Amino acid sequence: MRRDLDIRPLRTLVTIVDTGGFRRASEVLNISQPAVSQHISKLNALIGEPVFRETGQSLRLSATGEELLRFARQLVRTNDELVLRLSAAKRGHRLTLGVCDTLVGVIPNLITALQEHVPLPRMSVQTGPGGHLSDQLAEGAVDMVVRLGAPEGPADEVIGAVECTWFGHAGLLTETNPVPLAVFAEREAPLRRLAEDTLTERRITWHVAYEGVGVEDVVTVTRSGFGISLLFSAAGHRWHLPVLPPDLLPEPVRSLPVVLTAGSRLADDLTGTVRAAVHRVMSDYTTQEAPARGGVTLQG
Questions:
Q1: pLDDT digits over 22-78, tens only?
Q2: pTM given for the model
Q3: Angle, helices 268-282/7-19, rounded to nearest 10 degrees
Q4: In the Cβ-directed half-sphere of 164, how many Cα atoms lie within 13 Å?
Q5: Residue 219 lies inside a defined structural domain of this protein
Q6: Number of neighbours of residue 164 by Cβ within 10 angstroms
Q7: Where in this chain does the record put each HTH lysR-type domain (predicted)?
């Protein structure tokens, strides 16, 4: 007897593995957690044993579950490619992604992940201040935005938080000279504002020694020993930056939420897969949860 596979449980399985849990998969797919569990139950029945050996904090696939995941990825990818090609042929669909200046370092990995779902000729990326990108999203010029800052509406999804750390060579800090900051050129950039506010609140004198275009620009100057920078903690491991010893500068009191917003112009059949790819890439840069925040709203 022939049995036809339902692509939805397979997509749910792939999303659970890529995002690291049932709850995050339900958020990415925009379905309830009971629906996620129901999809996995269907797959359990299909293979005749549990897909996962362990769930909860630690997700571990069974041997058959790992084999199922390999085929699920292939089938979901083939499904999405076929739908995309057919819909693009009719509507000339494109994906335009907006990434705030502070997070430009994630763009290469984002492009690589998105190529699984969107052909390069139909993909474009814009960078700029978060507020500007949000305006572009509202106008339909951008399909999806990844930015730092507090959520501002129901379409904004907090996908994690950037924890901040001071980087640079300790020899640059003396009792007599101001702290030489390497910052983003955009004055409203969240990490620049956070660095300046943190030092000012503690009455520590500072001056801007270098203004960079993006994070990798600031990283290069910091590594060279010219300035002190406040960057997301993952930057140290990713770019081999020297971390300042504790207590040399005040610890930042805020972490910055990372917000993902999809516009109404983005095709429904593409939104879920693009969102999952963004989740997967950004998880390397963020903590799992955004902390509660008060005070000044930072947007980047």
A1: 888 888 888 888 999 999 999 999 999 999 987 666 788 888 988 898 888 888 878
A2: 0.58
A3: 20
A4: 24
A5: yes
A6: 22
A7: 5-62
